[in-house]
Amino acid sequence: MKCPKCQAENQSDSAFCEECGAPLEAACPGCGAGNRPTAKFCRKCRAPLSVTPAAAPTPRAHTPKHLADKILQSKSALEGERKQVTVLFADVKGSMELAEQLDPEEWSQIMNRFFQILSDGVERFEGFVDKFTGDGIMALFGAPIAHEDHAQRACYAALHLRDEIARYATELKREHGVGFSTRIGINSGEVIVGKIGDDLRMDYTAQGHTVGLAQRMEALAEPNSCYLSAATAALVRGYFSLDDLGEFRVKGVAAPLRIHRLAGVGASRTRFDISRARGLSRFVGRAADLRTLEDALQQTGAGNGQVVGVVAEAGTGKSRLCFEFLERCRARGMHVYEGRAVAHGRNIPFLPILELFRAYFGITLEDDDRSAREKIAGRMVLLDQSFAEALPLLFDFLGVSDPQRPAPPLDPDARQRQLIGVIRQVIHSVSEEQPTVTMVEDLHWLDAASGEFLEHMVDARAGSRNLLLLNFRPEYRADWMQKSWYRQIPLTPLGREAIAELLGDLLGNDPSIAGLAGPIHARTGGNPFFTEEVAQSLIESGHLEGARRAYRLVTPVERLEVPATVQAVLAARIDRLAEREKRLL
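^ that's the sequence the OP posted. Answer follows.
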């Protein structure tokens, strides 16, 4: 008999799963007889049973059509492939006891709504519901289609689900008088994709460890909390606030495991933020690219507003180049405004644009709506008294509507035209006193609404004293790239000497590590992010001991392993290829 929760095989007469302890029989609320968990009616009295995995939706029913089509079209290429994934389990705490307190039909409706909340939350961050269990789900991030930030997406989804389920629990307490709590467990690791059925259910040859450990995290979690394994914690530390709970004995694992509780969102949003917190390495090999940016800034200062795009593959140093340039601009007292697209934000309209204009108006997370409106109004009226008429529209766009002065009802096109007109005026007004620099990062993750808005921002640069700095990967394309005031800086990988200088700054110059620079350059292709991650993995694995710029080799390095962070980046790139090219690669 297969367990509906963890899919482990059990003997036919088992009442509970030997792997995860989940019930393998559903107790009839009428006569108490045991039934198979897939049964819809009691085998003794024909009473309807509470919701079961068979009654729950299939993965395909809750997968967006474009993703379902891509999986089914590419499943022959995906099957048997190694994936770095994050697995999320979520279930209802004490579901059997709750089911006994309610009418079967009521319980079925409650669980169906619960499944919908879970599915929507996972889908919001482009996760994949792999299985519906009797009282929860198993979801995957990074498979069947790879994501380079799979662990972060799973944690964002967990925090979102925590809030949504808390609201649902309050509703159930009010309407049915029952307590409703959930547990979430998350683990990251490598799996091998098995057979993919037409309903999108999948098998994994590595489920005994990577998938099974995620289920163990869920079983250990306290009600209304999410527990992370050490593997996931290592991937998301800095992006999220974590509580270290210490080491736990986990069934099926010989050594104690360190476990963390997911507490909230952290201070970092990008890989570059993590690098800054860890301590930036020496900036090498980009002097010519900096000169190009300085030339664009000089032309902007003369009233010929410029748009510069920095384009390169993941990890080549786009963010670092832009950071160094913006720091120079700030040192000169120039105004700098930043916004960035994020991988999980493609379904959130205007995310980077809103960040950009909140930065312009000085709006922080501590500001309430009234404070935010005061900052917007003060800045706008200071620029031009005529902007006062546009304030209700701006308040509404930035999510701080004034109940006393709501925005006028407009159709979407008219609203967009007015907003664009205001933003054009703002761009020209802010740069009258001195040149300003605006940066939007990671355009390859831009949502469609922001992409349209960006096009008008590019047009508004003509004749202004505002430099628009953008960075993106090579797959990003836009019509505005044909503008005469747009120029592009393609970054190439670092050469052998630059990589040696970078490693010297990170590791030092002890004779024991003198032979590492060549193999690392060959292994990483001169990619600075890959280089730093390989160096960090050598430190974490114990091959290197010491401190920054003073490491020494203590155990031989027979083979340079590809870190999980780099594997995820490469896998996400590979999955965007056509099936034929992917299979060849």
